[in-house]
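Bench notes, bay 3.
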Amino acid sequence: MTETASVGDRPSSDRLIWLVSACLAAAGALVWWRGLSLPGGEPHLWWPAVALGFALSERFAVHIPFGRETHSLTFSIAPMVLGLFFLDATELVLAAVLGMALTQAVIYRNPPIKLVFNAASIFAQVALAIVVFDGLIAALQVEADSLVPATWLAAIAAALAADLLGNLALFMIIGLRQRTWDTSELARTLAIAAVGTLVVTDLALVMALVLVRQRQGLALLGVIAVLTFLLYRGYQVQRLRYGRLQLLYRFTRSVDQALKDGTVEAAVESEARELLRAGYAQLFPCQPDCEGAWYAAACAGDPLLLARGGTSDAHRALRAAGHLDGLAAPLRDGGEIIGVLVVADRLGDVSTFDHEDELLLEALAGHASVALANSRLVERVRTAAEETEHLARHDPLTGLPNRLHFQQRLERRLTTTGSAAVLLMDVDRFKEVNDTLGHDVGDQLLREVGARLETLAGDETVVARLGGDEFAVLLGGDDVHVEGMVARIARDVARPMRLGEILIDVSASVGIAATPRDGSSAALLLRRAEVAMYDAKDGLSGVARYSPDRDPYSSRRLSLIGDLARALEDESLELHYQPQADPATGQITGVEALLRWQHPLWGHVPPDEFIPLAEHTGLIRPLTRFVIETAVRQCVAWQEAGTPVLMAVNVSMRNLLEPELADTVARLLVQAGLPAALLKLEVTESAIVAEPERALQALDRLVQLGLSVSVDDFGTGYSSLTRLRSLPVQEVKIDRSFVRDLADRADDMAIVRAVIGLGHDLGLRVVAEGVEDERSWRLLQELGCDLVQGYFLARPMPAEAMTTWLSDRMAGFATRLRSEQADEDGPRPLGGAPGRRRAGPTLR
C-alpha cells in the first residue's frame, strides 16, 4: 500500500520539499543503477494495465487527516505485488511512476512540486520493494515465479518496506511544513498502514495464484477486493466520525471557556477551522449587503455546501472571494437568523468538503448559536453590572467619583504610600444661585465646576463630588503641591461661568487635611478637611488648614458631651456671681449669674465651649432651668439677708424661641417667692436678629411677667435702630470688646459714646462689661454710663463669697456716701473706683 502526500503550498518550505524529493529520486536511481531484476514470470502482464491499476488505486484512496495535512492510504500495493511476479523491473517502475503521475496531474491537478514529490516517492518505494524482494528470493534460494510460501514472505516484506519508506517520507514533509513532529500520530498511522498493507498484499498474492492456476477466479477475487476496499474505507469513515465527535466535545468545552473570557466569536472561528480542517472560518451577520455573497443562501436558513470544481453562481462568487471550496450554516437565536458560520479552503488538495462536513458544520452552528446567545446575554449582564458599578461609584450629575469611590481611593492611597492630602471645597453662593435661578441652573453650575475640577485629575490626583456643592480632591502629601493645587482650584472656579444667558461669578472655600499631621485614616482626614472647610468659609482667604483648636468634633468635645449630662444630674455645675455698680456712686445694684463647670479631667470648661454643646445635644432646656432656678433661689436668700440685688441670667437663642420659656420662668418665680422685678434676662443681640418676629413675641411675654430684659453683647450684631426701638427691652449691655481698651483706642471710645447716647435717647439703661482698670471706670463715669461690670469692681465668685462681699459693701454704703459728699475729690468707691456725686438707679 503506497501513501501519497497532500501538502499545502508554503513557499518558505518549498526548498525542503524539493530537497526530499531529490533525495528519494536519487535513492531510487542509485538502486536502479546498481541493477534491478525481476523474474517476469508467466503470465507476463501488460505493463500499461498495471499502470492503470496504480492510477485506480490512487483515485480511490482513503484520505485520513494527519495534523493539518491529509494522509492518503492507497491500494497501490496490489499492482506492485503483481508486478513483482509478472513484470520485469523496468516495466514495474515505469508502470508505478506513470500511473501515479497520471492520477496526480489529470485527476487531482496537483502543482508540480507535489507531482514531483509523489513521483519520486513511488519511484523510491518500488525500487526498495524490488531490492528487498530480489534479495530475499536469493537468500531463500527459491524460484521467484514459483509462488511458494517463501516467495509470499518475500512479497510481504517488500510491500511493508515500501509502505514504511512512503510513510516516513510523508511524515518528514509534514513535519517540515508544520514545524511539529507528532511521533505518536506517526506510530498510529504506521500501525494502521501495516495492517492494511498485509491485507492488500494477501489479496494480491491470492490474485497472483489465481492468475497462474485458474484465471476465472479473478471475478471472485474482484468481489472480495471491492468488499475489502469498502470495509476498510468504512472503517476509516467511522474512525473519522469518532474523531470528529471528540473534536466536537472539545469545541463545546472551548466555547464554554471562551464564554467566561468574552472571546466566544474568536473561539468559534478557531475551533471551526480545526474541526473541519479548513484554512478559513468566519462569523458574518446577515445584513442586506450580503445578498451577493457566496454564503447568501445560509442567511435564508439553508446550509450550503460548495465542493471544489463547481460551476454554479455561488461557486463563482466563492472563487471570486479567493476560496476553493466552502461551507456555510445559519446561526439562530430563537427563531431568528442572526448570522452565518462559514468555513472555506479545505486543507490538502486530495479532498474537499462533503455531506459529512456539512452535517458537522450544522452541529457546530447549533452549538455556536447557543454560545453566542449566551455570550450576548452575559455581555448584557456584564455591561449592566458595570453600569451599576459605575453608578454606585460615580456621581450621576457630574460623572465624577462619588464619596464611596473617593474614600476607597483614599484608603488605597494610605495603604500603599501612607501619604495623602485631602482638599474639601464647597461652592460659595451656590444656595443663592439655586434659590434665585432654580435647580436646573444650580445643576448646570455644579456640572461646570465639576468639569473644571476634572482637568486636575491624573494618576496621582483624584477629583470627586461628595454631594450637594461639596467637591473633594485627593493629592500627595507634599505641601508645595497642595498649595499650588489650592491656588489653581481658586483660579479655575473663580473664572466667570455662563449659565444660559447669565454670567455668574462664584468662589470656593477650601479646607485642607493631610497626613500625618491631621490623621492617618480616610474617615478622619475627610472629617477634618470638612472642619477646615467650614473654618475657611468663616475666614477671608477662603482657604484653611485643619486646626484641632477649631474642631467641634474633637475627642475633648465628645468627652464633654457625655459628661455634661452627668454633671447636670449630679449637680457638679455651679453658679458664680459678678456684681454690677453705678460708676458715679459705687452703689451695688445687681449681680450677673455666670455658669461654671469644673471638669474632673479637663479642668475649667468655659461657657463658650459647653453652652453650644448643650444646644447641640438638647441639654440647653434643663441646663437653663437649672441656672434660673438656682439664681432665683439665691436671689431670694440675699433678699431675706437684707442685701437685695437685681439678678441677671443669660438666656440663649434656643431658649428664647421656646414657647414655654415664659411659663417656666413664671413657675420658678412663684415657687421661690421672688418678685419678678428682681429678675433680669439677658439675651444676645444675635439671638434677636436671627428671628426677630418670634423673638419679639417671646420678649413681650417675658416683660408681661414684670421682669426686665437686657440686650447682651450690644454692638457685635446687626440690629437696626428701628428694631431696637421696637423691642420691649429696658437695657443694653455694651460688649466687653469695646470696653477692654477704651482708654487707649479712640474708635472704641466713639462706639461706646454713641451706644450710651443712643440708649439714653431711647430711654434704656446702659451697662458696660469688661471694666478692668480705673481709667476705663472714670471714662465711663464721664460718659454717663449707668452701670459697670468687670474685674476692677470684682471677679465672679461663688455664692458664699458673694454673700460676704455684698454684706460688707452694702452695710457701709450710707456712711461712705456721706463721707464722699464731704470730700470734694471724693473717696474711692466700692471696689476702689473713683466716685462722683450722681444719683444712680435704685431698687424699688
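Next record in the batch:
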Amino acid sequence: MLRPPAPHPDDVRRSRLLARLDAVREPVIVVAAPRGAGKTVLLAQWVDPERCAWVSLSSHDDSPAGVWSAILESLRPYGAEVAVRPAALLDDQTTLFTEIIPELLNALVSAAPLVLVLDRLDVIDHPVTRATLEELVRRIPDHIRIVLSTARPPSGPVAALRAAGRLAEFDEDDLRLDPAETRQLLATVARRPVSLAEASAVRDEYDGWATGVRLAGVALRDQPSGARLPHPLRSVEDFFRAEVLECVTSRQRRLLLHSSVLAELTPDRCAEVTGIAEAGQALAALAATSLLLRRTGPRLTCHPALRRVLGSVLSAEQPDLVPVLHARAAERLRRDGDPGAAYEHARLAGLPDLAMRAAVEAWPEAAPRTLLARIDRLPAAGAEADAIAAAAAAELACGNPGRASARLAAVDADAALDARAAAGAAAAPSDRPALAVRAWLALHHGDLAAAQTDATRAIGPYRLDQTGPWWLTLADAALGTALVWDGQPAGAVARLATAARQAATAGYQDAAVRALDARTAALLLTGEPAAAFASASAAVTMHEREPDRSVPPVIAHAYLAATAGASQVAIPWTAGDALDPPPPHAEAFASLLLADACTARGDARQARCIRAQARAALARLPPGPTLAALLDGQRAGGMLDVRPTALSDRERAVLRALSGPLTLREIAAELHVSHNTVKTQVRSVFRKLGAHDRADAVARAATTAAQPAAPAAPPGPPGPPGAQPPGGLDQPTRAQLVRASCRRA
C-alpha cells in the first residue's frame, strides 16, 4: 500500500503523541512497539497526505525489487524521480548501492520537504533489502523525514544515528494508552459510557496495549456496566495465536508455552524449567524478532497479555504439566534467592510445605502484611515452629501483640517452651524464634524478668557481635530493652546499637526501629543527649520511610517532640487507633520526657497530667529500677535533658527586653502578662542559652547573632540540643527597640 490507511471511526486521536511528533527536528524517527500497539494509527493521524510517501511493507514481497519498486513509486509524485529499472537490476545489490540509491538521494536533495513512512519494517528479513534500507536511512537528507515503524527491536544504524543526534525514538512506553485515552477508546468501541473503574481495570489488564483495549471494548458492548471480562478474552487469544504462536518454530512455541509460568526469563531458568536444552538460543531468537518480549537488564519479560494467553493455551493443551513446571520454578527460584516468587510457584504447584518454607525464607525482607497474607493462604495444620514464629513477629511489626500471642498459643508453642524450660533443657534451635517473639510479648505485658529470661534463652551461645538469623536481632533488641528498664542502661547501649545495625542490614525494619528506640532511652539515661538525638532521628526516619514495616518508635517521637520546643505537646502513640498500646515501660518513659518538656516550658499543670499518665501506664506493674527512680524524682542529675533548642517568639521578645533597662515587672507590663510568667520565661531562656544571669544571656545571644549564617540545610528533624542557634539581638538598635519588640510580641 502506497498511501496512509483511512481513519477508522473508532480511532482515538493521540494528541499528546502527535504534539511530540510535531516537535521532532531529527530526520529519522523510529517507532518501535509490539504489534497492536497503535503505531500505524498514530502515524496515519500525524502525516500530511499531501506531503507523505507511505509504504506499507509486506512479508509476501520481501525481495529487494519488491521493496525498492514500492519506495521509488511512492516518492515519484514528489519530484524524486529515478529512472525505471527492471526488477532484475533492483534485485542486484551492486546496482542498488552504486546507482539507484545515489540517484534517489540526489533527487531528494532538490525535492521539497516531505515524510517517507516505512510501515511494518519488522517483516523485512531479506539481508540485501535490510542492508540497502539502512544505507538510505543513514544518508537521508536533513529536510526529508523518514519514519521507521517496527515491531522488533531496532537495529542497523540506530546507534550511530542516536550518537549523531539524527534520531528520535518512540517506544512501547510512549505508545501505551494513558487512562483518559483508554476510557475514550473503550467508550467509543463499546458504544456506551464506561466508568473509571472499568477503564482502569482494562488498562491494568492489558498494560495500555491498544489492541487489547479495543478488543475489550468490543466485548463490553453486550455487558452491563461493571461486569468483569474473562481474561484472556477469546479474541485476544485468537490474535496472539495468529500473530505469535503460528509464526514461530515448534521449539520456540514450546519454549513460549512452558516458560509462561516464569515472570522473568533467563536462559538458565528457561532451560531448567522447560527442559529445553537450547532454551538460550531460542529465547535470543524470539527476543530479536518481537518486542512482546521486553528486555530488562540481563533478563526478559513477556508482555502481560501474551503471558496470560500462553498460560491459557498451556492449561488447555497440557494441564498435567502446569504443576510440574511450577514446582521446577519454585525450586530454581529458591536457589536464586527469590523466596517470594518461589512461594507463589510452590502454592500454584500444590506444594504447601514448600510454599511455607519459601514464605519464611522471605522474612524479614517481605513486608509484614505480605508475609501474613502468604501464610494465611496455606493450610494451618502442620505449620512448623519457625513459620509460626515468623507470623507472630510479623504481627508485632504490624502493632498487634495480641494477635502475635494468639498465633503462638494456637499451636501450644508457649506450653511446649515452658515445659522444656522447667525441665532445664537448653533451647532447641526450633525454639529460639518463638522465644525471641515471646521476649517482646513479655515487654508488652510489662514483665521484665520474663523478657530477659526468654531473650537470653533465645540468644543462647551466640555472641553479641555475631551475625545471625532474624530472630537473633529481635532477641538482642528485647534483652537490651529489658536491661534499660532494669537499671542497666550503660550495659544496653552497645547491644542495642549492634542489634539495630544487624537488623537494618537484614532488612528487618521493625527490630531495628525497636532497638533504636530503646537505645535513645539508654543514651538519655547515661547522659548522652546528642547521641540520643541521633538515635531518635534514625528511628523516626526509618519508620516514616516505610511505616507499614514497623511499629512507631514512641520514645524517639517523644524525645524529638520535647526537644523541638513545640507549643503543644501531643502524645505520639495515641494517633493510630488501630495500634495496640506500646510496651508500658516505653510509654511511661516517653510520658516523662514530655512532662519534662512541659516543665522546662513552664507549663506545670500539663507536666503533672502527663506524669500521671506515666504512672497510669505502669499501674499494677513493677516499674523496674530505672522508672521507679524517675517517677519518684530520685534520679541523680535531676530531670532528663529535653530542653528545646530554639526560643519561642515570646522568649525572643523577653530576651530583647533583657538587653535594656527594664525590670522584670516592667517587661511583664509591656507584654501584658504576670510577673511570675515572665520569671518562668526568663528561666527558660537561661536554660536554652546555657546562661547564668541576665548579662550572660544577652552576651551569648549577641555572640550567636554575630556568627556568619550557616548554609541552608535540607528540611528534616530538629538537631540535637545545642545544634540550633536560638537567635540573637539586633545590636545597633536594641536599646531603642526594646519596648517596640515587647509590643510586637
